[in-house]
Every structure is written in C-alpha cells, then in structure tokens.
Hints:
Elements: H1 2-10, H2 14-23, E1 34-39, E2 42-48, E3 53-58, H3 66-78, E4 82-87, H4 88-93, H5 95-107, E5 113-115
Parallel strand pairs: 3-4, 4-5
Antiparallel strand pairs: 1-2, 2-3
Amino acid sequence: MDSFVRDLRSNPTDAERHLWYRLRLRQLAGFKFRRQRPIGPYVCDFICLEASLVIELDGSQHVAQMAYDSERDAFLRQRGYRVLRFWNHDVLTRTESVIDTIFEALQRPELDGRFD
C-alpha cells in the first residue's frame, strides 16, 4: 500500500492539487490536513485528524460506484470520522463555496455528507 499511496501523492488530480493548495500549511483555521492518508483498506483524499474529518473529491467515475462509496463512508463513520464529498468540478469552479463548507464542518462537528 505504501507505494500506491506514494504514487497517489505524486500524481494528484487537478482538483486535488487545487484544494491541497488551500488546505496545506494550516491555512484553514489553523487545522492540519494530510493528503492521501490510508485508513484501513481505504486511502482518503484529505484528512484532518484533530477534527476527525475526511474530505473526498469525486470525479465522474463515482456516479457508477455510489454503492462502493457508501460502503467506504460507512467504514470511516464507524471509526469516528465525518466524511465530506465534493465533485471535482465544484472544487475547480466553486472553490470558495467548497472552502466555506469545509470551514463550517471544522466548526460544527455534526456536519457530514455530500455537497453539490
């Protein structure tokens, strides 16, 4: 899994690169985010351990794998994580709205789900 994770970190999607630029270096309310972090059999796009918050970015392939994503989200929630999902397109075109939603989730522990 280590080489797989290294490969994911070395080859981010445009949306991952774009969002990472805004999350890295504690830029968002001082919270530390990590990228491509394994949890069990899954690799999370972004995670803030102190807020137990996982952020997943979904491309068009996720329309066909919604059952898999639901199973994955349930696995993460059973371990105490909240999961926010955003479409890649929204990260690239509505960045401020995505950042605002993440910021709100960091402030409100009950916020969880998909944001369109």
